Each structure stands twice: as C-alpha cells, then as structure tokens.
Amino acid sequence: MGTACTQSGTRPEPTPPETSGFTVPAGFAVTLYAEGFKKPRLMTVASNGDVLLSDTEAGTVYVLPDRNRDGKADSKEVYASGLNQPHGLAIQGGFLYVANTDGVVRFPYAAGDTKASGTAQAVVALPAGGGHSTRTVVFGPDGRMYVSAGSTCNVCEETDPRRAAVWVYDADGKNGRLFASGLRNAVGLEWSGGQLYATNNGRDQLGNDIPPEAFWGVTDGGFYGWPYCYPTQAGQPQVWDSNFGKRTAATCTGAAPALGLTTAHSAPLGLAFYTGTTFPAAYKGQMFVALHGSWNRTEKSGYKVITVNPQTGQTADFLTGFLKGDAVAGRPVDLAVARDGALLLTDDGAGKVWRIQAR
C-alpha cells in the first residue's frame, strides 16, 4: 500500500520503529521475544534456530522455538528441570552442556529437541555456591570445554584454584587444567577469530569509580590481576591494590592489560560477537556486552547494552532505557545472535527476552 501525501504535497515522516521504551540507534527496533521467566540468564542458539535458555532461579532450561519465523517464540518448552542453578549453555558433539553451580552436566541433544531424552550426565564437578555462584561453559575451536567460576568473596586469596579462573577440559571432562587466573567473576565467555574473550566484574568497596569494569582477550596461562591488581586504563599496566595490601606492586607487572574498560560497578555479564548479516556493516564482528547494572554506586551505572571494538577496546552505547530516572525497569544479562540476524537479549529483572532487529 502506498503512503498518502499531505495537503502540502510532502510525504509525512515515517512511523518510527517500535522500541519497547528503549533507545537504540536509528533504524533498529526492539520487540518482545518471550516472557514469564524467573531469572532468565544465558542462551545458546541451535543450528535450526531454536533458542535454548537457562532460568537459574527456576532450575530449568527452556527451548524457545520460532518455527513460523515471526520474531516471537512460539512456545516455552521445558527441556530439563530440577537443575542446580543452571547458567551457561553450550551445544557440542551431539550434547547440550549445562553449567550448574556445582558442575557441568550434559544431555544428548539434536537440533529440534524440545525435551531431554534422558537424565543429566555429570561431566565436571565444580565448587558450588560462594559469593559468585554462576558458572559459564563454552567450547573453543579446538573442541575443548572452557569453564569459568567466580570468586567466593569481594577480595581474598582463594584456596581452590578453580575459583576466579577459567579451566579447560576435554569434552568428556577429562584432562582438566588451569587456563587463566585472576578473573574475579568472568560471567561472559566467547570465542571469536581463534581468541577467547571475557567480561569481568571488578572488586567493590573502593568508591564509586574504582576499579573500572574490564573486558579481556584471554590467553593460555594469562593472569588478569585479581585480587592483587586492577586496571585503570585499557592497554596499560595494572595498578597494585594497596587497599587489599597483599604481595607487592611488582606482582602487577605480570598482570595482562585490559582490552577495554567501562564504568565501575556496571557489572558486564554476557557478550556476543555480531556474526549476522542484517545489521549495518559497521557492526560486523563487534562485541556486544550486557551491563547488568550497579547495586552499590551513588549514581547507578550499567543497565544497558554497549558495543566494544575488539581491536581498539573503544565502547559505545547501543541500547539504553532499563533505567527510568532512578527506577530500574530491567537488568540485561546475555546476548545471542538469532538465525535471522536479530540480536536476542535476556533481562532477569523483568523475566523477559528481547529481540533487537535492524529495519
């Protein structure tokens, strides 16, 4: 249908795309993909386009199919329930891997499955609970399994080397070893171009602006500073945490510089590299990061989605609007690229999954 002209002969302004109350760059729309969850956290997308989602509070993994491709989940299928705080999800070698708080389990899986065909198979045991209780699992291009677990505390020397670290295992859980240390709470893990990237939540109780939150390119054997050091500038040496006061400033010479930084206490969680074809070309290969939002900062920080240039570390706002004045309308957690090129975003404050598409 054509657009009618006004009496003056000029065309009216086009109707702006739906944004569901969010602010996004011109040409993008934000719509609801699914809702009614308790604490929706991390996602993975199957080869047929089905979205698998962990609900940590419900102890459930859901399948959210969109078989009619209308941009909304057709249904919420309970794939597995009764899990112990499920969080990270990964599909590899005919299995769905689920990172519970006390270990990684797996189920036989084929694209299109909406219910687990059997009971969970234990793969790796992990220390349960603690100050940071979520676990994340991803697979690298080497076919091995990478698992992160956060610290038990704000700042301390851990006795269990699996804490505040990333470990690597064979797909069956054997031959595990420390891959990277000094990551206080690396909730977001993602591979891109043969490089593992991570988000990290820095320590608290040093004021509103110290330390900034960091993003990292993680390498085998790397040390990322915590609890002795923290970054203050991207690409520059870390500084010694004199407030904690353990070891000496010399320790920080071995701490890897941060790829990029954002505001202190903004709590970067999930990340995704844009691999679709429907966003403008400038977004191809960019890192999208969900900032969950601060809980202990005088002026709230985070509560948005940003982009991070993986070459320069430069950041830019992409989606805002979770803060309505001083009120919190939701809390972004994780991002995933859907089969149709849209970007999906979990929100554990509102119990929803949002869909961001280019018009």
Automatic annotation (TrEMBL):
Task: Name the InterPro entries for this protein.
Answer: 6-blade_b-propeller_TolB-like, Beta-prop_PDH, Quinoprot_gluc/sorb_DH_b-prop
Its protein name is Sorbosone dehydrogenase family protein
Q: What sections of the sequence does the record tag as coiled-coil? A: none
Which ranges carry the Pyrroloquinoline quinone-dependent pyranose dehydrogenase beta-propeller domain? 23-357
Which Gene3D superfamilies does its entry note?
TolB, C-terminal domain
Q: Where is this region: Disordered?
A: 1-22
Q: Which PANTHER family does this chain map to?
A: LARGE, MULTIFUNCTIONAL SECRETED PROTEIN (PTHR33546:SF1), LARGE, MULTIFUNCTIONAL SECRETED PROTEIN-RELATED (PTHR33546)
Q: Where is the composition biased (Polar residues)?
A: 1-10
